[in-house]
Amino acid sequence: MEQFGAWSLVPAIVMTILIFTTKRVLEGMVISSLLALIMVHKGDFFWAFMEAAIKVGTDEQTIWLWIVCGLMGSIIALIDRTGGAIAFGQWVAERAKTRKATLMATWFLGIIIFIDDYLNSLTIGSCMTPVTDKHRVSREYLAYIVDSTAAPVCVLLPISTWAVFAAELFEKNGWAPDGQGMAYFIQTIPYNFYAWVALFIVPLIILGIIPLFGPMKAAERRAHLTGVLAPEGSEKIDMKAGEIKLAHPKRPKVRNFFLPIIVLIVATVVMGSEIVDGKFNIGADMLAGVLITLAFMVALYLPQKILTGEEFSDVTIMGLKNMIYPLLLMYFAFLFAETNEQIGFTEYIIHSAKSVMTPELLPAVVFLILAAQQFITGTNWGMYIIALPVVIPLAMGVGANMPLTIAALLSAGVFGSHVCFFADATILTSAATGCDNYRHSITQMPFGLLAALISLILFVIFGYIL
Fold it and tell me: Does residue 273 form part of some domain?
């Protein structure tokens, strides 16, 4: 891998400028990826682009993403077309009669579905959209609430895909002994300040303790005064934009919503868990979960005669089609991350910060530098793979508090998932809530930055206390 020093920042800077000036995320990523490849491969950049595109497209994670998220689109489309979403909306409306109560219910449901951020964003976003629409809640506001209970919740609980992944990395990189990764992950939970702050800012905003401000305030004003809930351009990413128009059942049943969701969660956990040396290790396998859920939905819906076998297939395919644009965004985000790796962007960022890393300030510096890196690249788990082998020995070497420092690194990843324009959870939340990706990002960014500022202050304070 060739090192370009400060020049490795150029593609990221160009992409950020393009996104803010054109308000088009996908094009910004493609152009910046090409620029990075030109820096590395000069005149052979076209073939390098083809090679990188094939590498990312055939990567196991990318294939998994296309299958799992595509079929999640099918599950959500089926729940909607069989009346499950309508029945769920009626069920919530009977219990949460006011606007604030409905928004609090959205936040609470997001905390309950903590197994995986993809599952959280897609399920809560798609199911709560028709409910909040009745109260003239802007899609930007709904997307912000949903996104704030995706990665933030997953990194605060040991029973999640984020926890399992991080625990494995702790063992591989020498911080945790073999078999103790999860115990060490639990040590970081109290200090994962960004996740805590981002999560609990939401009810303060809903209750009016923290007022809406910035672009979010304008979005809510638009929704209230004009009734236009989704911003311009939302039809491109809306999972329900191309739905087949079938008549809903006259008496929709709430079980057609709850049973598939319960099966999805249970199957995901059971199929991902295992017993090792007599010890039950909880995990998550979303691929097995979505496949089992689709099979269950055949057995649930067809005997009720609310869909024929042909209609079931048509809606399943339509759900897949509705996920194409969000998945394309995520594919090009992975491609941008791949090209940034070739120019040594993340390594340059980390090594440039070493000069200001004292034991007391190390957690704050780790959070600040890697949060900025995550906002630009949105790699989340990819950053953990790259940064942990550097940060763990560095923290040990300078004598910094290890749980606090590692929590700062985890917090930076959550910040990226929450705020980056093209982070996976941001894209999927936009799709599930029917909100333009750029508008979702730009409206929630001030609140994400507020949470980041509070977190940075806490990392500084605890760096000196612990």
Answer: yes
Alpha-carbon distance of 323 to 216, in angstroms, equals 26
Has residue 62 been placed in a domain? yes
Q: What is the pTM of this model?
A: 0.80
Gap between the Cα atoms of 289 and 277, Å rounded: 25
Tokens of 193: 């300040």
pLDDT tens, residue by residue, 219-230? 999 999 998 998
- Fill in the amino acid letter for 214: G
State how far the Cα of 390 lies from the Cα of 368, in Å rounded to an integer.
16
Residue type, 206: I
For the segment 388-428, what is each residue's pLDDT rounded down to a tens digit? 877 888 888 788 899 999 999 999 999 988 888 888 888 88
Q: In this structure, is residue 1 part of a structural domain?
A: no
What tokens does 374 get?
């995550």
β-bridge mates for residue 280, sequence order: 275
Secondary structure of the chain in HEC code, one letter for each residue = CCCCHHHHHHHHHHHHHHHHHHCCHHHHHHHHHHHHHHHHHHHHHHHHHHHHHHHHHCCHHHHHHHHHHHHHHHHHHHHHHCCHHHHHHHHHHHHCCCHHHHHHHHHHHHHHCCCCHHHHHHHHHHHHHHHHHCCCCCHHHHHHHHHCCCHHHHCCCCCCHHHHHHHHHHHHCCCCCCCCHHHHHHHHHHHCHHHHHHHHHHHHHHCCCCCCCCHHHHHHHHHHHHCCCCCCCHHHCCCCCCCCCCCCCCCCCCHHHHHHHHHHHHHHHHHHCEEECCEEECCCCHHHHHHHHHHHHHHHHHHHCCCCHHHHHHHHHHHHHHCHHHHHHHHHHHHHHHHHHHCCHHHHHHHHCHHHCCCCCHHHHHHHHHHHHHHHHCCCHHHHHHHHHHHHHHHHHHCCCHHHHHHHHHHHHHHHHHHCCCCHHHHHHHHHHCCCHHHHHHHHHHHHHHHHHHHHHHHHHHHHHC
Q: Which domain holds residue 37?
A: 6-465
Structure tokens at 310: 């042909």
Report CA-CA distances (Å) from 120 to 101, 191, 207, 426, 455. 20, 23, 23, 12, 24
How many structural domains are present in the chain?
A: 1
Question: What span, in angstroms and rounded, lies between the C-alpha atoms of 121 and 295?
Answer: 22
427 occurs within a structural domain: yes
